[in-house]
Every structure is written in structure tokens, then in C-alpha cells.
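@channel sequence for tomorrow's demo:
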Amino acid sequence: MDLSIGEVAQRSGLSVHALRFYEREGLFANPVRRLSNGRRIYHEEDLEWLAICTKLRASNMPLMLIRRYIELVRQGPGNEHERLEVLRRHEAHVEAQIRELQDTLAVMRHKVHIYEDHVARGDADQLWNPSHPAAPRGNTHQECQPPQGT
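C-alpha cells (generated this afternoon):
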């Protein structure tokens, strides 16, 4: 079934502008087909690829690496080991991002706990504020310290 750029935008959640960008950057697995009047025509497999491609982009896969992967896919059978290596390298990158985000989440949870405690006790005004160094500091050094064990 032929799909217009508007239909693909609606179904993929990408803007028309983003779809044109993906096309310009060579990020479609198959070249976008056009009618004689220049209108772009998409197919279901384009939507399937866009779902994968947007996940690769969301995980910070560089455009160059996505293009490399697409190039290998377009070449057809025989380079599966190379495709696998591209995906494994990016998988390791995503895992590192997740670890970093988990560390960041631990720090944020620690800070939330400190603020909750101070707000509940009614002494939130005692929290450290670098723009007011004369403010009472009490036991506020804990706000700047990361949680133990991270």
C-alpha cells in the first residue's frame, strides 16, 4: 500500500521535516520512491525501518554509523558479521549510557531524599546555597556529597 509523507509522519510520529531530513541523509533502507509529479511514496517496510532507525537515533547512534549499517544492509547477504559488529559496538555504547544514567539517578534520588527530609523537618532553609555563603550551613554538607556505594 502506498503511503504519503503525511501518512508516514502521522504513523511514525516523525514530522514531515524529519522525514525529509532522513531522506536527505540517506537514512532510509530503501531509496524513497517518487511519482512522476515528484510526490514521495512510502511503503510499510519504510515504516518498519523508521521504527528501528528512530531507536538507533534515540540511543545516540551517530548518523555515520547508521549510514554504514544501512549500506551493509543494502549490499545484501554476505556481510552479516560486519552488521553484527556494528550493532554490538553500539549495544556496548548504549549499555555504558545506561550505567551513566543509573549513576545519575542514584545522585538525584539522594538529593530528593535530602530535600524531603529537610522539608519535612521544616529546616529546608538550612540547605546549602552557594549564592548566599553567609547563610547558616548546619549539617548541609551532605547535599553536595554523592550517595555512598555508587
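heads up for whoever presents: The chain has a mean pLDDT of 89.
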